[in-house]
Structures are given as structure tokens and as C-alpha cells.
Amino acid sequence: MEGTVEMGYRARLRVWRGDADSGELRDYEVDAEEGEVVLDLLHRLQATQCPDLAVRWNCKAGKCGSCSAEVNGRPRLTCMTRMSLFGEEETITVTPMRTFPVIKDLVCDVSYNYVKAREVPAFSPPGGLEPGEYRMHQRDVERSQEFRKCIECFLCQDTCHVIRDHSENKESFSGPRFLMRVAELEMHPLDSHEEKGGNRPEEARGDHGLGFCNITKCCTEVCPEHIGITDNALIPLKERLADQRYDPLGRLFRRKNR
After folding, report:
1. At a CB cut-off of 8 Å and minimum separation 6, what does 3 contact?
2. Which tens digit of pLDDT belongs to each residue from 28-86?
3. What is the CATH number of the domain that holds 46?
4. Which end of the chain is more exposed for a tag (fewer CB within 10 A), N or C?
5. How far apart are CA 130 and CA 140, in angstroms?
């Protein structure tokens, strides 16, 4: 109709295609509409040009963490990356997460993370209390609630240079997501892991590689839930470990208690 303004345009995508053995970046042009996100264009690319394009996704609402990829080199959720962030003439490069082995196209094998998750000792309930009898201060609830917002998109794992640039560290380093889990449990006032002979700060150092972390805050910068991973989890965990190992008064107090 005369006078109608065309809102769509042809977006330029450069998408990594391949598998664990080989692959390449391929250029495509895809229709884009106002208000769309990168995942919308990947779906349209599947529907119109590349039916065999492998893309992992689920909720398309930024809550499942499935659609993690790297957009123009930055770890992002493709369902939360708006096309309006880029110019209409800009080529948008979409690649799989670099830290993890590629299965096909944009789908990675993230099983490393599930192995590390199983290595973290679970919450240890306090003795003498039944479920429903637990009581905590509200400030303690709020402190750990931030960490429970994690959707396990593993973008923090992907961007952490300790394993991104040095895959040989994967065996001894659990990454920011699971060090955050250790910190959450260490801060939990009802966790009785220590009373049963455990020591979460020491386990973070010995079993999970806390010492590899040099607090560059790259994990915090890419977190889609805006969790203060470095400031609120990793640094306090390092401080607790330093207190245990090097504070002379603390060591004297613990020795007296034993």
C-alpha cells in the first residue's frame, strides 16, 4: 500500500557450520523484523535455508540457559540478544561456545559441567531438626538467593580464561559456576558439612581449583542474571580460605575447640 513504511530488512549472518572434526564460517542473508532477537533469525535460517542447522534452545525467555553461543565473540544467550544492538549493515557472527567441544554447528558438549556439579558435596542438613523446622535470618536467605538465580547457561564457564585458553586445567578447575555453588553452601548457616568432617573452603582450593581464579570478573560481566559471581561468591570464598589458613587467632581458636 502506498505510504506504508517497510520495517524489515535483510540481516547478514555469519554462522559457524561443522562438527568436532572440521567446520567453517558461512555467510547468509536472512529477513529480520523489528523487535527480534538473534535466535529468531537462526530459526528463520533453519526454516528457509538450512534445515540441518543445529541450534540448542528451549524456553526462548532467558530462563533455561539452553541457547548459549558467542555473538560477535561475546558469550551471550541468543534469545536475549536483540537485533537492535547491531546496525542493519553489520555482519553478525554466531559461533559455538569456544570452551566446550562442538557436537554440530552451534551445539556444544557441556557434559564437563555436569561432571563438576556432581563433585560438589550437597547441602548437609543440620542434626536434630526435621524438614520444616529450619530457621534462618532473612539476610542469610537473601545472600544465597542471589546465587540461586543461576540458570546454568554456562556462559561464565565459557568466558573463564582458566579453561577457555587452557583446556588442560579442566580436570583440576571446576569454574566459576561451581565455585559459586561451594560459596553458597559455605555461607549457608544451617549447612552441617563441617560438623561431619568437611571443609568447604579447603575443598574449593584442593578439589575445585579456587587458586586458579584471579578475579578478572569476566564471569560476572557475561552473566545474564546479573549475579555478582566474583564480588559476592568467589572473593568471599577466597577470604574465608585465607582466614582458615593464615589467621593465627583463628587457627588458635579452632585448635582449642578441637
Report:
1. none
2. 999 999 999 999 999 999 999 999 999 999 999 999 999 999 999 999 999 999 999 99
3. 3.10.20.30
4. N
5. 20
